[in-house]
Specification:
The chain is an all-alpha fold. Helix content is about 75%, strand content about 0%. The protein has one domain. It comes from Peptostreptococcus anaerobius 653-L. This is DUF2628 domain-containing protein. Keywords: Membrane, Transmembrane, Transmembrane helix.
């Protein structure tokens, strides 16, 4: 596949996609003014999958991995401490609701900074790889984590 040369510097809107102007631009402006909190309902409700959807797979995978391990340990040992730790792991969802957008902002800033060091002939490919959202991989992670949890608990 051949990409056209991308001459201008990469900006936030190139990487965020369609929701930039109406949702993320005002929030990112607040972050530039020193604010670190903004509430995102979807980040709170489906925390690890929201991170994966927003192309922050390592954070989402870490949360899923920790929760599956705690679930398995709580199920096998039936110790109140491990059951409590598993329940407390859902506090990450609340944290994501308030600080998920800030983590996304930091990721976008990092991608913009690195993207502007990429040669012009590769910038379009870089933007295609790093921009927007990835619904298919998020759905795959949902079904994959359910399958792993099921296998771990019942087989």
């Amino acid at each position: 596949m051949r990409y056209e040369t991308f001459e201008k510097p990469i900006e936030e809107k190139d990487l965020v996609g369609k929701n930039y102007e109406e949702y993320y631009k005002p929030i990112f402006d607040q972050f530039r003014n020193g604010e670190k909190k903004s509430f995102n309902l979807w980040a709170m409700l489906i925390s690890p999958y929201w991170y994966i959807y927003r192309r922050m797979v390592s954070h989402g995978a870490l949360v899923i991995g920790i929760q599956i391990m705690l679930l398995m340990l709580a199920y096998v040992t039936k110790k109140p401490l491990l059951i409590g730790l598993f329940c407390l792991s859902f506090l990450e969802y609340i944290r994501s609701g308030f600080y998920g957008n800030y983590a996304y902002y930091k990721k976008i800033q990092s991608n913009v900074e690195f993207g502007n060091t990429v040669e012009s002939k590769y910038k379009q490919k870089y933007i295609n790889d790093k921009s927007g959202v990835d619904l298919q991989i998020a759905i795959a992670w949902v079904f994959g984590s359910i399958a792993i949890g099921y296998i771990a608990l019942f087989i």
